Amino acid sequence: MKNYKKGCFLLYLTSILIPIIMVLLIIGFHSHEFIPIWFHYILFLLGFFVASLFVTSIFILFKTKKSKEKDKMSKKNKIIFGSIISVEIIGASFFLLLLYGPFSFFRDWLISSAMTTMNHRYFATWFYSKNEIDTVLEANKLIEIEEETNLNLIEIRKNFNKDYYENEFEKEIFTVEDIHVNYKIIPISGKNYEGYMAVIYDPSRISVGTTKYLNNRGQYVTEMAANYEAILAINGGGFSDPNNRGSGGTPEGVLIQNGKVLSNKGYDRSGGLIGFTEENKLILGKMNAKEAKEKKVRDAVSFGPFLIVNGKRSFIKGNGGWGNAPRTAIGQRADGIVLFLVLDGRKVTVPGATMLDLTNIMANYGAVNAANLDGGTSSVLVLPKNEASKYITEKEMKSHCLKEYCYINDIVNGSGSHVTRPIVSSFIVK
Residue 353 in contact with residue 329, Cβ under 8 Å? Predict the structure, then answer.
């Protein structure tokens, strides 16, 4: 009976491995532009080895002498084996249907979400050819408004007393209940996202914060907030992360802090410079550090895309080409009020916001200029502990807080853990 049990074990093992190998082979050959040919050979040899084990297990079972115990075990094994195969066939079929079936929503979401990340494009390139990826990205994209920021559209106000409100969103901004002396936090939720908007009434209090270890390693925004003794902070611009170390210490594009240029690298992605002038007006533009200094930019990061320029919304085709994900955005109203938007995602019921979602929210709250900032695991809204306790539970305080600062949104990284990451820059309020 030892041979019979051995044969059953091999049968179960190979019945699990065979469909996995088959799916990998299908995906591997489907994505030949991205996956090296040697990897295909390894998969093929592995598949041949597993198939050989499967045949061996069948041979062992048939050669085993009949017995009552065998007949009894055989019925039980048939049920187990049949169940395993059925689940595998259904699961594999459903998975392949999602990837390559006639319904494009999953394919569009996967490609557009993965290809706009810095480190997780393999989620798309593993399953799809370059032509398929290019086709999906062409059908889902954002076309920015090609205008210089008209700073004359912004008139910084000190007095916000209003006799009437343009709409319900403006009423939320100016209603004084639960308002901090320098800002107000508004809960934001939609079909696929949830988070917060911080309304900053005095833009002169906003500046760029950076990691203490610039060009070496990043810091958590909670650490940056502590370094600058901020009353509020959000994550900022883009950064490079060689070898996916999980800590971005080297900025991408232009980085300016209190008039000092910290980085002046080229930036060939959508968007560009996002910053504040000496007049405390949000400026968006594709410019280098010299051009920024000529426009009297005092603090700036680099990222994008630009969502609204001079009151005009970017043209968004399909889902905008960025998929659903945790997002951070910044905007400014005509009266000078600045809007910090942080939205969560990567959860079953809350997959995240699209560029269209960000644009709609910013437009609803009256942003004349608005831009997308770094998102994903970087997206955080940070407050001092005493203020953060109004928005998160005591249990969350243990995981959300570092030093005397906490992030109040619920972050989910690529592995499903509820943690953020060290980054290179932030926007802080002092």
Answer: no
241 is written with which tokens? 């992360």
Neighbour-count burial of 308, counting CB atoms closer than 10 A to its CB (0-12 exposed, 13-18 middle, 19+ buried): buried
Q: What is the CB neighbour count within 10 angstroms for residue 206?
A: 24
Going from the C-alpha of 151 to that of each of 35, 272, 287, 314, the distances in angstroms are: 48, 17, 16, 18
Q: Encode the chain (430 residues) as per-residue pLDDT tens digits.
A: 555 565 566 555 666 566 666 655 555 544 444 445 555 556 556 666 666 556 565 555 555 555 444 554 555 555 555 555 555 556 666 666 777 777 776 777 677 777 766 556 766 777 787 888 878 777 788 889 989 999 999 999 988 777 788 899 999 998 866 667 789 999 999 999 999 999 999 999 999 999 999 999 999 999 999 999 999 999 999 998 765 566 778 999 999 999 999 999 988 888 999 999 999 999 999 999 999 999 999 999 999 999 999 999 998 887 777 888 899 999 999 999 999 999 999 887 888 999 999 999 999 999 999 999 999 889 999 999 999 999 999 889 888 998 899 999 998 876 667 789 999 999 999 9
CA distance 348 to 325: 12
What is the spatial distance between Cα 241 and Cα 423, in angstroms, rounded to a whole number? 9
Query: Would you state the structure tokens that stand for residue 424, as one six-digit string?
Result: 């290179």
Measured at the CA of 89, the angle between CA 86 and CA 94, to 5 degrees, comes to 125
Count the alpha carbons within 13 Å of 180 in the hemisphere toward its beta carbon. 19
Return the DSSP state at 175.
-
Question: Which among 205, 248, 203 has a CA at the least distance from the CA of 422?
Answer: 248
Rounded-to-5 percentages of helix, strand, coil across the chain: 40, 25, 35
Strand 183-189: give its sheet, edge to edge: 183-189, 194-200, 338-344, 327-333, 367-373, 306-309, 312-313
Run of H or E including 165: none
Hey, what are 326's tokens? 């945790």
Please list, in sequence order, all residues whose beta carbon lies within 8 angstroms of the beta carbon of residue 252, skipping any fewer than 6 positions away.
Answer: 237, 238, 239, 240, 263, 265, 267, 302
Closest by CA to 405, choosing from 417, 391, 424, 416, is 391
